[in-house]
Each structure stands twice: as structure tokens, then as C-alpha cells.
Amino acid sequence: MKNRLLQDSYHRLNIMRLMYFRPAKLFNKINELPWYQETLQTWSDSLGYHGGESVLEVGCASGQLTKYWATRGAIATGVDKSPQMLQLANASSTHGAHFKLASALDLPVQNSQFDYVIAASLINIISEPATAMKEMVRACKQGGTVSVLVSQAGMKDADVTRLADDLDLSGFSRAALTAWHRRAPKMQREKLLQYFSQAGLQQACSNSYLNGLVLTVTATRNAGA
Prior knowledge:
Structural class: alpha/beta
Number of domains: 1
Shape: globular
Strand content: 15-25%
CATH architecture: 3-Layer(aba) Sandwich
Largest sheet: 7 strands, mixed
Radius of gyration: 17 Å
Helix content: 40-55%
Low-confidence stretches: none
CATH class: Alpha Beta
Order of helices and strands: HHHEHEHEEHEHHHEE
CATH topology: Rossmann fold
Strand order of the largest sheet: 3-2-1-4-5-7-6
Distance between the termini: 55 Å
Mean pLDDT: 90
């Protein structure tokens, strides 16, 4: 138990150090964790992709999810406002994925360009979520899919401890899950649905992952949106 507590303290301090001094490296390490990748991939797989379609990931960070879509045969583009993140995205094989430096508030894409427009851990942290949502809708084709993933409000520390135990997490992976719960801005389902509605997306559906730690909302862009 003592060794476990010492390890937890070490990894918490390491995460804090990276957060303040090398955030791109921290987010890249988190994006590579199996539990996080599995969550993003399960969410992506639920969106009904048929093959050969185009996808835009807004706030792609170091690009792992954009690359996953590309490995499935999608024409995949990721955008992020951080040069450091895009440097990491381009440092390894892109598997046919393409990356651009851009703000989520002013996407350098044509209207109705993509079949899928997605954003993970963005709408809950960005300064102007309503603007970002409207840009995502603008980039999506009529009949296309807009979907976002955020940290969901309501989880308690004890809930996350049980989740980490259920997933058999230890070391950095366990500390990262705890830090994500404690530090990532969270969003209520009703608030996220409100942003979808304001952007012209109706009949949105929601889902949750990691025992409720993560919320996704998805909608189809119909005529008029």
C-alpha cells in the first residue's frame, strides 16, 4: 500500500509538471493510453461510418484519433491551434491523415465539406463553445454527422477510484484518469444539448462511457441547419 501511495504521488507530480511546462507532451501521453484510445475508438465506431467518407476532427491534438479514422479508410483531416500538437501529429506515420494549423472558431474549410465532423475534449474547454459548434455544423454536409465528446459532470472521486480499479489501472495511467476527472472542465448533458440546438442541430442523441465519466452527443445535419 505504501509503495502504491508513493507511486501515485510521483505520477501526480509528474502530470502537474508536464501540465505547466510541457502540455503537448502530457496530452500526447494521455492520448496514447489504452483506456482513452479505446473510449475514442468505440465512440467513433458508433457513428455509422461506411468507408471512403470524409471526416474532420476539430482540436485533434497529437492526431491519434484522426489517424484511427484514416486507418479505417476515411479521408481524414485534423485541425488544432497548437503548433506543438501538430508537430507531434506529424512526427509519426499519418496513415493517410492530414493535419492543419487552425482555430476551432474559424475553420479553414469549405461549407458542407465533410461527412463527419467530430471533436473530443474540446467543447468543454474552449472559450466560445457556441461559435465552435456553429463552425462544426458549417463544415458538415447535409445529412452528415456532428458528434462531440466531453467530460461529464456528476462523477465523484470515489466513482473514479472504482473505475480505475475496474480497469486495473496503475502508475501514470491511473494518475492520468484521476487528473482528467479532477481538472478537466465538465459539462452537463443539458448544456451540451443546448449548444447543439443553438447550432441548428435537432434530435441529438447522447451516450456515456467510462461509467459516466465521458459524455457524447451526436446529431445529423438536416436541411436548414
